[in-house]
Amino acid sequence: MAAASALHSIVACSATGGVGSRRSLYPSATCLASRRARSLMVRCSAESDNQEQSAPVDTPSTPKNNPSPPPPPPKKVSPNFTDILAFSGPGPERINGRLAMVGFVSALGVELARGNDVASQLASGGLWWFVGSSAVLTLASLIPLLKGVDVESKKNGIMNPEAEIWNGRFAMLGLVALVFTEYLKGGALVQM
C-alpha cells in the first residue's frame, strides 16, 4: 500500500512537470508546490480485497434518519429476600430513606406542637411509635419487591424513583443534623 502511494506520487509529480523538468533544479520542490495547488483527494479501500471499491460520499445537505435502537428490556428484580436486602439491592436505601422522611417530618411536627426535642420524644413513649411505624413501612416497602415489581417501572412525572432516593438521603442527613444540633444546644431546636 505504501509502495503504491509512493509510486502514485512520482507519477503525479512527473505529470505536473516536477521530475525530469529542466525548469527546476530541485524537482521535489516543484512537485510539492504543484501538490499544494491541487485539491486533496483521499481514497479508502479494504486491505482484505485486492479490488478497489469506491463508496459514495454523503453530502451534509442530505441527513440520514437512523432508527434509534430499541429500549433495553426492563430489569427483572429477583424476588429473593437476600437479594432485595443485599448491600446493592433495591431495598435498604429505599426503606431507610422512607423511614427517615417520615421520622424527620414527625419529629419536627411533635417538636413544633409540644416543644420536646427528639430524645425526650423517644423517652416519653415515642420509641414504640418509632418501632411500630418502622415495621409497617418496612413491610409495605418489601411486599412489592418480593412480588417482583421493579421500582424503576413506576415512573410518572416528578414522582420518580430517583427523586425518592434523593429525598430520602436528604431526610437522613436532616434527621442526623436535627439530633446533633439538639444535643449541642441542649434542648429543642424550635421552641414555641
TrEMBL record:
Keyword annotations: Chloroplast, Membrane, Plastid, Transmembrane, Transmembrane helix
Taxon lineage: Eukaryota, Viridiplantae, Streptophyta, Embryophyta, Tracheophyta
Family to which the UniProt record says this protein belongs: Belongs to the ELIP/psbS family.
Region (Disordered): 44-80
InterPro entries the UniProt entry points to: Chloroa_b-bind
Biased composition annotated in UniProt, kind: Polar residues: 47-56
Protein name: Uncharacterized protein
Record's compositionally biased regions (Pro residues): 66-76
Membrane topology summary: Multi-pass membrane protein
Organism: Amborella trichopoda
Superkingdom in the source lineage: Eukaryota
A matching Pfam family: Chloroa_b-bind
Compartments, as annotated in UniProt: Membrane; Plastid, Chloroplast
GO cellular component, one term: chloroplast thylakoid membrane
